[in-house]
Amino acid sequence: MAALGQESAPLFGRFDAGICHLDPHHYEDVAAFYADSPRYGFVEKLLTHGVFGGTPRYHALVYTSRPPRRGDCFVADTAKSIPGI
């Protein structure tokens, strides 16, 4: 795919406008996913941002009709398999 962007390639220059680099969302942007949920306060929003980071797709999959509980996320299962925890 990278070879298509070289000057000697017949499609040179056609892909420049379509390349879009996206950065992860900051906390304020992620908190907007939970603005309509009365069960997600500052702590819950911060927790989900800490677990899922700034990837919008992961936050779109969160079930917001109830607040997160201990053991709801995959981190709890991962922590059990780490020696010394």
What does this structure look like?
- With 85 residues, the chain is mainly α.
- It is built from 4 helices and no strands.
- The N and C termini lie far apart (44 Å).
Write the element-wise H/E pattern from the N-terminal end onward. HHHH
| Helicity range | 25-40%
Shape: rod-shaped
Distance between the termini: 44 Å
Biggest β-sheet strands, sense, barrel: none
Poorly predicted runs are 74-85
The helix tally amounts to: 4
Total strands: 0
As a whole number of angstroms, the C-alpha radius of gyration is 20 Å
Number of separate structural domains: 1
How much strand content do the residues show?
Answer: under 5%
| Coarse structural class | mainly alpha
Tell me, rounded to a whole number, the average pLDDT.
74
Q: What's the SSE blueprint?
A:
Layout: H1 27-31, H2 42-52, H3 56-60, H4 74-80
Main attributes?
85 residues, 4 helices, mainly alpha
Please outline what is shown here.
This protein has 85 residues and is mainly α. The protein has helices at 27-31, 42-52, 56-60, 74-80. It has one domain (24-85).
